Amino acid sequence: MSRLIVLLALIASCVAQNCVLTVPPSPLTATGLATPYQQTGCAMADMPSFVQGAAFDPASGNIRIYNPLVVDAGTNPGCPLTAPNLVQGAIVALWFGTNGNTLTLKDNAGSLFAGVCVNGFTDPITQVFSIFGQFAYCNAVVFFDQVKASPRVTPPPLGIAADGLPCPTTRDYFVVDMDPSDNVITAYLLLTNGLVCQNTSTNFMANMGNIQMALTNGSDERLLLAIYNALGGTCKAWTAIDLAETNPLFAGQQMIPAVPLNEIQASKWQAPPIALIPINDPMTVDGNGQPLLGKTNAYRAGVGQPKAITNLDADATNFCFFYYTVQPLRLLRNMGTMVNFPSPDPAAANNLFTFLAQRYFNGFGPNGLDCANKLQIPAPGPITVTLDANGVAIAALVIPPNNGVPNAAATNPLVKNAAPAPAALAWSTTQIVAALLLLSGLIV
Asked: Structurally, how many domains does the chain consist of?
């Protein structure tokens, strides 16, 4: 199975494209936000890129969302763009994601400097610059600093899921994978004529019958919404007003989720153990795959996470330990529910449960964080998956880890002093047999 995973990864890397976004002049202004980003190297119809914007008003503490549009270079927007109404003194920030292999921001008349845009990191020793991969941001550091310093920002508390546990955040080990907090929640409308529109009620109603599909970003931040939907209870994403909505019936009332909202709420309410960007995150290593603390911190800053002072503060083994002890247990706990929810990517898995299991298998394994090796436990780890002839995950087996500390983790001071792993679930023989049958596809 591992050889097949490697083969699929190689095929995907060959198919994936390297996308380039030209950032418009003055990107943090109302005019800049309403100017389309020009994409080259990828086509929006099959390898789209995305921009997510937010405006913070320090006077009121309000956060508003505006998602700029991306179009293929040389094409026009499929719908009119309206500049957002920004309050005086608003602090604007942008986040970027792509479904392509990599994303590079391109300057236009000083736009990268004007936007305080960060696409990667320059190693101070080698002076070699490397991009994050699929992620970038503009002015996010100032945005998060101002939001955190404001007494007027009150992110809603987390609810309680139907499984009796707190609803997770983007910094919960139940949600993260090998590259946490990546990409964005933005969606666009692809019209039948190949042009792209912002995803608003106005544009949807004006183009009913001419919408080919919704374009969405393969994002951990968006995946949280699907997880909330499956967990039930009082789990609900924090949303804010969409400034792109111009329909008088909906303007000021259309509420949408966004990366900064997810991260601010996680910063306020996520209880230990807290999943922060590890130093071996594939998006924060250098061009040779070696850990790079400065790049890890540059990425962390873009999603409002605390700076790691030393390599141990972003320790990979510590991350792997809680990745190992937290996610499989809760995934197994909610298996019976999640198999009834759709997969975020039908080409990868046939339901939400198998999607999360496949994602974990890849992230935990040697082509991800290599956690089995770091924790000195038998490979591939607590989760294995079954693929059909098309490479789609159709079943998964989760073996809950025990509460014993793996050998490598036992000598790691961060792991020894961290919050304890959750207690293992007690499964009866009947439950285990039923689970195995369900995972094998013998029970629907």
From this structure: 2
287 and 197, same structural domain?
Answer: yes
CA distance 108 to 131: 18
pLDDT digits (tens, 9 = 90+) for 35-63: 999 999 999 999 999 999 999 999 999 99
Taking the C-alpha atoms of residue 24 and residue 38, their distance in angstroms, rounded to an integer, is 8
Query: Domain residues for 408?
Result: 325-444
CB 398 within 8 A of CB 335: yes
Q: What does the pLDDT read at residue 247?
A: 80
Please, which contacts does 165-170 make with residues 24 or more away whose CB atoms are closer than 8 Å?
A: 165/330, 166/271, 167/228, 167/231, 167/233, 167/234, 167/235, 167/236, 168/224, 168/227, 168/231, 169/224, 169/262, 169/265, 169/266, 169/269, 169/270, 170/220, 170/221, 170/224, 170/262, 170/263, 170/266
Is there a domain that residue 8 lies in?
Answer: no
Task: For residue 6, tell me if it sits in a domain.
Answer: no
Query: Does residue 222 share a domain with residue 96?
Result: yes
Q: For residue 2, tell me if it sits in a domain.
A: no
Mean pLDDT check: name the lowest of 24-33, 261-270, 416-425. 416-425
Q: Write out the two tokens for 155.
A: 């992110």
> In whole angstroms, how far apart are CA 69 and each of 33, 50, 72, 238, 270?
8, 7, 10, 22, 32
DSSP for residue 349 = B
CA distance 361 to 237: 26
CB 323 within 8 A of CB 369: yes
Within a domain: 9: no
Interval 271-317: pLDDT, tens: 999 999 999 999 999 989 999 999 999 999 999 999 999 999 999 99
pTM here?
A: 0.88
